[in-house]
Structures
1.
Amino acid sequence: MKIQQLADLMGLTPHTIRFYEKEGLLDSRHIQREKNNYRNYSDEAIERLKLIKKFQGIGCSLAELKTILQDHDSNERTNQEVIEWIVQKINEIERKKDEYDHMLVTLNWMLTYRKLLTENPPQAEAMMAELRIRMGQQ
């Protein structure tokens, strides 16, 4: 399969697939070079790209992807090590979720305040006064 066919099938760009190859996420099991130097991708490349997309979907960085795929290929990690990595990833996502929740609270407060400036300025001022009090107490 040629790179454009693979890109279309996987919802990626040829540039992204070449980048994965350059970074070592795809190797000779996934890509064969023809005599004209065109890349020919195997069915294993499809499965590998699905795996890459799966781990990107849970927020894995490029460095994590490399490690995960090396571990996947070599099967060297123990089950306990994989469990520890999963727990670490869950904790990381929970921290990010808490940060996003805090951002949403702040943005919703700002939106309400801005709307009240037009609709009910005294209530907007009361919101701001309450915020100043809370900020002074922290």
Note: The helical segments are 3-10, 14-22, 43-57, 62-74, 79-119, 121-137.
2.
Amino acid sequence: MTLFKTSVLNGLAVLTRVFTALVLNKVLAIYVGPTGYGLIGQFQNLISMVTSLASGAIGTGVTKYTAEYADAAVPRRLMWQTAFRMGIVGALVMGVVLVMARGPLAQWLLHDAEQASVFIWLAFSLVLMILNGLMLAVLNGLKAIRAYVLANIAGSVIGAGVSVALVLSYGLYGALVALCVSQAVTCLVTASLFRRHCELRWAELLGGFDPSHARKLTGFALMAITSALVVPGGQLLVRGELGHLIGWHDTGLWQALHKISDLHLMLLTSTLTVYFLPRFSELPAGAALRAEVARAFRFVVPVVLLTSTLMYLLRGFLVRTLLTDDFLQLTDAMAVQVLGDCLKVCAWVAGFTLISHAKVRLFIIIEVVFTALFVGSTLIGAHLGGLIGTAAGYAVTYAVCLITNLVLFHRLTRASESVPLVTAGERA
């Protein structure tokens, strides 16, 4: 499928996700306020870390090898079986840990031991969350974009419906429970779409394990687990320190500012994942990859400059519409924040080549170093300039990240031209 068609179809899913997120954000802004917004951010980061640990964070590897083994049915089947077995076992183990540690986790993360039962909801939802993610990764690798898009649209609509109902009924507690169960509910829709594109029966899919494929997936697991632990862990640290430094009200403003950035960049980052990750994985690290990355930049840069300009010009309207007047203070930091958004997307384009070509050690070092830079620059910025200072720290982080990723990408593609290429079929 072409980049244009992929972008259009993926755009439908993203527009649905954005619309449902806007509705949900408005409801959260009204019913939980800035302080509750900060606590929800803490719990979202924990869920990201838990699901990645439970699954081994192998979704990216599943997408890569599904695309790479397009003409090799037996290795692909063994890889799927191995991935699903790893995901289910990991989810069960992590679920037990969550149930046993629910009290201390609630006190540490949510500052309220009475919220401990939300971790039980998370534990029992974990298997379905993991399976949903793995099925989406397979659909992406198969380039079954229509099914992938439909699954994401259904997930957005169902998730938003469940979340709004729970928030209206139970406030902050309902919002926390919704974060656990919404993805689990959408697993049923994803499963029906997945079954049409996967040639294996459920019993076959869940029944095998191959150590060689487990080792291959482990390389991606190390990269993804690093991202899933280091990045949210850095955000947890920042949010906790900001709570002491500028107060939980302003910390909620910081969380809302980054949530707006996430919504802003959703179309571009989703297209990178859906189209460019499988595409980069198919190409050898040479002239063909350079040409595809240049194509990605020609798509990304004009779009992100346009959307960033619109975000800044409409900042007051957007905050009033998406949130409430209580959040208007964050418009002061919007100019610097959208600059950071532009730099972040461009850094991701080059960075995806490291993921797609399994540069495990480099990727892990980059994630750790730049998360540390993000934490340090954000906290220094908050100390010097409050909310605007945190946005400046965000922009500085991704400016340095972009330069670094471009240098590494240049070395990757130039060095490979002197090495004999091995085809996907030979690797299989």
Note: Confidence is low (pLDDT under 50) at residues 418-428.
3.
Amino acid sequence: MAKRCDICGKGPMVGNNVSHAHNLSKRRWLPNLQKVRVTIDGKTKRMTVCTECIRSGKVQKAA
């Protein structure tokens, strides 16, 4: 599964873990993605959508 929202395109972000001694190691922040049944043009489709799109109403969930 791709770690990308099908609606807004949100994907992983990268940065550093920073220890107390200021040692840096790479890390990733993954978006909170959910598999949701969505109604598009009267048809039901399964999509991978971030929770921000679900909460904001950009997605119409299938009944």
Note: Residues 51-56 form the longest helix (6 residues).
4.
Amino acid sequence: MKTELRNFSKLAIVALALTVAFTTTVLANGGEKEKPATTTFKFIGNIENQPVFELNLISVDDEYTVSFRDEAGNVLYNATFKGAVGLTKKFLLKSSDISDAEENLSVIIKSKKTGSYEAYTINRKHTFLEETVINKVK
């Protein structure tokens, strides 16, 4: 009985060792780490009903190309500039350049040094909200 128990325990140890030895971790995204963002892009408000956006450079001194495009792929704005870490650029987009008030825009920021790019979408919606509140005085 003792020899059978020893053989069973040895077999269990060997099976456990083989299981641990040949087990690999499989990551859903292929094991690639997400690259840290080099820019931030945000809407900061309107000036005379013209939208204003702000681009901040976070981590790379490089030459950048910024392109604003509509849904049809038409280039509304394209510029290249050299940027340093911490640089802030503001963009005023003329409403006359945008054909449809509900049209989505895309912004692509390309890095010349690294060859990478970051893409942002601008979803615009115009709504009118009227709120009526009634309060009892007495």
Note: Strands lie at 39-47, 50-57, 62-69, 75-83, 88-92, 105-111, 117-122.
